[in-house]
Amino acid sequence: MRASVVPVLTVVGCIFVLWYAAAVWLNAPWAYDKATRSGEVLTFGRVVEDTWSQEKPKLPAPHQVGAEIWKTTVEKKITSKRSLIYHSWITLSATLLGFALGTALGILLAVGIVFNRTMDMSVMPWVIASQTIPILAIAPMIIVVLNAVGISGLLPKAMISMYLSFFPVVVGMVKGLRSPDQMQLDQMRTWHASGSQMFWKLRLPASMPYLFTSLKIGMAASLVGAIVGELPTGAVAGLGARLLAGSYYGQTIQIWSALIMAAALAAALVGIIGFVQRVTLRRMGMA
Amino acid sequence: MSVIAAKDLDLTFQTNDGPVDALKGVTLDIDAGDFVSFIGPSGCGKTTFLRVMADLEQPTGGQITVNGVSPEDARKNRAYGYVFQAAGLYPWRTIGGNIRLPLEIMGISKAEQAERVARVLELVELAGFEKKFPWQLSGGMQQRASIARALSFDADILLMDEPFGALDEIVRDHLNEQLLKLWARTEKTIAFVTHSIPEAVYLSTKIVVMSPRPGRITDVIDSPLPKERPLDIRDTPAFLEVAHRVREGLRAGHLDE
């Protein structure tokens, strides 16, 4: 643990240095423009100061994003439409529902594919084809179609999350359920085990390491799906809405704070799965 | 009555390079309480023959009965325990849990499960390791646990496919000695595949020498060695004589080609 602190801090430090430098580089033209119009002559120090404190910079400096996050989380009531916590919760709820649906669908399909040859031949190509369609193209369709049949709010977004997150679960679980080798299957046969005993006592436990790896990818994909699902709804609420509204009005600081929030959310969710994975596999004697 | 009776057994695998005769005209009787070793170069069909007995492969010709019934019925009656080359313990189950696995599958009551696990662990000298996970045990101990698992449901027949093949010589000697004691105590019928001549001669009451292309039996040797066999019996003239005959049989199989 302690051994990783120094390298991690070094990398974070490098990122901050690059970020501040890039902010100067990208925002300087605007600073010079303003100065030319008002007839001022800028020293280098004034340029740096200006590029790190513009209202609508091309690239906001880290401390501006930090201040915006602080303002919109700690200093706003959670129920406020301007609270980032409120928007994060909207996105999080769709993410979690979509993740749960996607995981369930993924496991169900994987079981079908492993146990049924017809499903293996017919479903797997569709599963793969489903992921070749750009999600940005299909997301508005899902929203529109579901709206037409009177379903709106959380569920359409969760459907898009599900659409993205079931895929890694199917692929991982098919591999996991097939991971027992021929000898282990023969062994079960010598005991005259039934199909369901083979599933519950051998295939399912053997697939656990694969499942957790898939869940991590699925969770990240699910968050992306929820954010994408918020874009075509007219930017009502959620991190996706903050991103879209920010880009409408050139509020780059708002966009970046929403981005950082989404990244933190993803890291936390994947971290939770990683923790559950460690505890589960250790209790199973597999880690 | 013989426990395993094979008559004119054929098994031909269809491969991309054409048909391969894994077994051709194999006829053999194994009596109750026999310890039979199958020895021969790879491709001679010794493992295939064992797998036919276990209903893991289907013969393409001839007849075979196990305990007087077809191998399929014998398997469904749980007439045999099968020990594979690798221990094949489930990493997510403790040693006790692994031995319990076939008992759970066979629907044996919890109380009896516990009693049987304790008994077979005693039998393979692994008492006290019930709560350990497989990775905490050495390779030899894992293989002993897998033998305990094959013994746990009290089948009369033990089929062993090179169970000690992956272990080093010293561990192997020790396990061979233990296996003989176990066989003497349980009076099971054991079919044992190996490619080690000393192992086959040391363990068996009957040595079946096989040869490849097509897989067939070239010699069946009834061992004159006494049932009581300390490890140093391997230096006696009687032992060396049997070993010599096995070696001759293996060589003759090769000269045919």
Number of domains of chain B: 2
Order of strands, widest sheet of chain B: 5-6-7-3-8-9
CATH architect. name of the largest domain in chain B: 3-Layer(aba) Sandwich
Rg of chain A over CA atoms, rounded to whole Å, is 24 Å
Number of strands of chain A: 0
Write down the secondary-structure element order of chain B.
EEEHEHEHHHEHEHEEH
CATH architecture of the largest domain in chain A: Orthogonal Bundle
pLDDT averaged over residues of chain A:
89
Total count of helical runs of at least 4 residues of chain B = 8
Shape of chain A: elongated
Question: What is the count of structural domains of chain A?
Answer: 2
| Overall outline of chain B | globular
Terminal Cα span of chain B: 36 Å
Uncertain spans of chain A = none
Oligomer: heterodimer
Strand content of chain B: 25-35%
Distance between the termini of chain A: 18 Å
Query: What order do the SSEs of chain A take from the amino end to the carboxyl end, as H and E?
Result: HHHHHHHHHHH
The largest contact between protein chains, plus residue counts on each side, is: A-B, 19 and 27 residues
How would you state the average pLDDT of chain B, rounded?
A: 89
Describe this structure in a few short sentences.
Chain A has 11 helices and no strands. Helices cover 79% and strands 0% of the residues of chain A.
Explain the overall architecture:
The complex is a heterodimer of chains A (287) and B (257). Chain A has 287 residues and is mainly α. Chain A is built from eleven helices and no strands. The mean pLDDT of chain A is 89. Chain B folds into two domains: 159 residues, 3-Layer(aba) Sandwich (Rossmann fold), CATH 3.40.50.300; 75 residues, no CATH class. The mean pLDDT of chain B is 89. The interface between A and B is medium-sized, with 19 and 27 residues.
